[in-house]
Amino acid sequence: MKKITVILLALAMLISALSFGTIAEDNADFVDVPAESWYYEGCMYCRDNALMKGVGNSAFSPLGKVTREQFVQALANFNGADLISYQESSADTPFEDVKEGEWYSNAIEWARVNGIVTGISDTAFGLGKEVSREQMATMLVRYAEYMGQKTNYPFDLNGFADNASISDWANSGVEYSAAFGLFKGDNNSQFNPKGTATRAELATVLMRAHKISKSRIVCFGDSLTMGIETGFSDIVETPYPERVGEYLGVDSVNYGIGSELSDMIATRQGGIPLYVNNLTIPEDTTPVRILPVIDGNSEVYPFGFYGFEGINDVEIAGVKGKITDKDGGKGTRFNTAIYFMRNEPGKEVKVTERTLIVTHPMSDKRDDDILVIWSGSNDLKGASNLEKIPEIIANQQAMVDYAGTDEFIIVGFTANSYIGIDGFRECTDLANEILKEYWGEHYLDIKEYMATEQVLIDHGIEPTPLDLEFLAKGWIPESLLEKVKSNGERNYIHFNQLGYDIMADMVAEKIVALGYLG
């Protein structure tokens, strides 16, 4: 899922029911929002981004309360729910305090039917009652579940001094909202679960949610990122980058190309710049061969050797075009030569000095991207020692430096039957130890969990004899790995859908734990 359809953006779109009065016509601060107040930033952010309105007379009413029906109506408005379809059933609602035909009636029925609201009792919605912080958190997690978002992120409620005051039924909502950073404790580390939600608190949540809604996860790698299961053309239904996007409710980009080495991946991303020289781009759209080189190296570099996905579109000397084969096509699995074809006819351009090739990932780069790198497995294929690890790390570091972000994750190695040689199968674990030491908290060890019997227990899988054999070796169990090929062989390099989903779950939890969305 590439679009933000979950609660984070939903919060950012809360409008009518929670926005009283009109937006201030000028850009002056609200008279009742002091610049030194803790909620100043949130109120101003919501005003500037049209997320909440003032109440008139240049006032915001930061201490104003929010009712349950207002909050539910706002969620229904954002969801785009067909509330008319709930009109008939709303007449038979079990909530005796919800009258038929009111502005909130259908929205409450929509929320009830879809499990977002359960009411304060079996027969009462709690109309007109102010929303407590734990109630708001609970409705948020239920809406997220309704939209298919992962919600069970680890969070220790003991971090709140008043955690004993949180209702049992609200624990999951508070954990979810706190893990995402939507709710935080006060200066005394108290969550204040029974406290009524104010407009100032809502504005702060809106600001955090709106910023989160702009997040994007960009994943670079080889066939594991691409989502290969048994062959180059056999991709699982949902590769891990797409699944991470679903779990977190944010945009994700899959820049995986099978078989690529870590330096090939870095050239696509921009960490290792590629150049061309002595090139004439014709007036028409005739493909012209290009010979990319690395800075300071005249040797032709295997750019696009394994495919053009994740490279196109490109720009050379200000001319926009695509990487193609000699006939202007998409190339093959192994491209012995690559060509540049401009998108539209134009003036002939002669490239007489070293000129950067601007790939699509480079032109699409955003400062707030969350970077996930899963590279190096192909570098270590058949390795008899760890001498290539420094080069792999250098290529990863170049990518991080180019991205210019502190929000990144380096994923560890997984394929014991592929990395190293028969006499050096510990290559995977030894290499992971080096990555962990170098990257610290940014490092994610997939095998730490996936190569244990616990992963099978957690997912209700009865271990097969081969699972137990693999686990005894410290390998990921075969039940999570690629399916049998048509010729009956398995290389145990790639994951099946469940394996990729588990990996995506670990990436999502790592992103949340590091506070990249908060």
Structure in words:
This protein has 518 residues and is of the alpha/beta class. It has three domains: 7-213, no CATH class; 216-253 and 365-513, Rossmann fold (3-Layer(aba) Sandwich), CATH 3.40.50; 271-358. Helix content is 32%, strand content 12%. The protein contains 18 helices and 16 strands. The chain has helices at residues 7-12, 40-48, 68-79, 87-90, 105-113, 133-146, 171-179, 199-213, 223-226, 240-248, 262-269, 360-363, 389-403, 427-439, 447-450, 453-458, 465-473, 497-513; strands at 216-221, 228-231, 234-235, 251-256, 274-276, 279-281, 288-290, 293-294, 314-316, 319-324, 338-342, 349-351, 355-358, 369-374, 408-411, 443-444. β14 (369-374), α13 (389-403) and β15 form a beta-alpha-beta unit. α6 (133-146) packs across α7 (171-179), α10 packs across α18 (497-513) and α11 packs parallel to α13. The radius of gyration is 27 Å and the shape is globular. It starts with 6 loop residues before the first helix and ends in a 5-residue tail after the last helix. The model is unreliable at 1-26 (pLDDT under 50).
List the helices and strands and how they pair.
Elements: H1 7-12, H2 40-48, H3 68-79, H4 87-90, H5 105-113, H6 133-146, H7 171-179, H8 199-213, E1 216-221, H9 223-226, E2 228-231, E3 234-235, H10 240-248, E4 251-256, H11 262-269, E5 274-276, E6 279-281, E7 288-290, E8 293-294, E9 314-316, E10 319-324, E11 338-342, E12 349-351, E13 355-358, H12 360-363, E14 369-374, H13 389-403, E15 408-411, H14 427-439, E16 443-444, H15 447-450, H16 453-458, H17 465-473, H18 497-513
Parallel strand pairs: 1-4, 1-14, 14-15, 15-16
Antiparallel strand pairs: 2-3, 5-8, 5-13, 6-12, 7-11, 9-10, 9-13, 10-11
Helix pairs in contact: 2-8, 3-5, 6-7, 10-18, 11-13
